[in-house]
Specification:
- The protein has about 350 residues and is mainly alpha-helical.
- Helices cover about 35% and strands about 5% of the residues.
- The protein folds into two domains: about 30 residues, no CATH class; about 325 residues, Cytochrome Bc1 Complex, Chain D, domain 2 (Orthogonal Bundle).
- The protein has a three-stranded antiparallel β-sheet with strand order 1-2-3. A two-stranded antiparallel ribbon has the order 4-5.
- Strand 2 and strand 3 form a beta hairpin.
- It is globular.
- The N and C termini lie far apart (about 50 Å).
Length: about 350
């Protein structure tokens, strides 16, 4: 009907035709969906070992906090608060407190704990809000990290490279150097702290058995290193937090209609609202870095001799002033479950 009228009155009907066709024609393809085969292939037995380590406080300096404290299943892989309360806090999620009196922690984690959804996707290039751990080269096993030449060889994924750093952070899991020998070792040189944590793990008979059963190259406790530990944690995160069966995925792959409200939102998201300019692709992120004016909240991250309470973001990694206050576009997968948002939860 529209085409017939358009032939008679082309000048009048052209705008209506374009608007109607833009609404009816799909703006995305099956390539925008996440499929099970898009994820890195981790070993199931390795992932089971990683689950135990993920929830084990043995990997913290004072043995009082685990990876799961800030990335908990019951909190959808995050912690539900603006700025994490890491080492020294008590409780979980919104109920976690920084302590009182002389036992109160000196500082909170300066950035919001990101959720773990789809970090095992094969297209992920960087980790952390500022992208300071990144994949380099054509493969998946070469990485650039803050540890530089001390970054260990043999890491199975970008996820494994990322897992090295929360355990070395004083505010997250390590504690301060005067509190325990592990944190003191990290302060001296980062790989020394990793070696001490591996020593702890290899002293436990059940872990000795599990590592031998999981890794062919582990024949005795001395063969257990930080590499096997973070590889197992990566396998767990990469297989446990996968999201690829949403109504949007079914709309893309099967043509299942969205609800009327969701369909209106989809048209806005990919249309006039402009959200998809940055939040695009299967994970709803272009993986680039932008300065978008999020207000500073919390202590920030002092840079060099500067002690002002701000966070320079990507510039910390690149040392390029043009990257000041830029942060990585976050994925919007399961975003309804993982508030608050932004690098500092503001």
């Amino acid at each position: 009907m529209i085409l017939r009228f358009y032939r008679s009155f082309p000048g009048f009907w052209a705008p209506a035709l374009l608007i109607t066709l833009a609404t009816l024609m799909p703006t995305h393809s099956r390539a925008d969906a996440i499929l099970a085969q898009d994820f890195l292939d981790f070993d199931a037995q390795e992932a089971q070992l990683g689950r135990l380590l993920f929830y084990d406080k043995i990997l913290s300096g004072n043995q009082n906090i685990s990876c799961a404290t800030c990335h908990h299943h019951s909190l959808h892989g995050a912690d539900g608060i603006s700025l994490g309360i890491g080492e020294g806090g008590t409780g979980l999620g919104p109920d976690r407190t920084p302590g009182e009196g002389t036992h109160r922690i000196a500082e909170r984690v300066p950035r919001n704990a990101p959720a773990l959804w789809n970090l095992g996707h094969s297209e992920v290039r960087e980790m952390f809000h500022d992208g300071r751990v990144e994949r380099i080269g054509a493969g998946y096993v070469a990485f650039k990290t803050p540890a530089k030449e001390y970054t260990p060889a043999g890491l199975n994924s970008l996820l494994a490279a990322q897992a090295l750093f929360p355990i070395s952070s004083p505010t997250e899991m390590a504690g301060h150097p005067d509190e325990n020998p592990v944190s003191a070792a990290f302060a001296e040189r980062i790989d020394l702290g990793w070696a001490m944590l591996a020593d702890r793990v290899r002293e436990i008979p059940e872990y000795q058995r599990l590592f031998k059963a999981t890794y062919p190259d582990v024949h005795d406790p001395d063969d257990i290193t930080i590499v096997e530990i973070v590889n197992a944690i990566a396998a767990f995160i990469g297989t446990e937090w996968q999201s690829h069966d949403s109504p949007y995925d079914k709309w893309l792959t099967e043509g299942t209609p969205l609800s009327p409200e969701a369909e209106r939102g989809r048209q806005l998201f990919f249309g006039d609202a402009g959200c998809s300019g940055c939040h695009n692709g299967p994970r709803f992120t272009d993986q680039n870095f932008y300065a978008v004016g999020i207000p500073q909240f919390g202590p920030g991250r002092p840079f060099g001799e500067d002690t002002m309470p701000h966070d320079l973001g990507r510039m910390e990694t690149t040392r390029n002033p043009e990257d000041a206050y830029k942060f990585r576009t976050p994925s919007l997968r399961n975003v309804a479950l993982t508030a608050p948002y932004g690098h500092n939860g503001a």
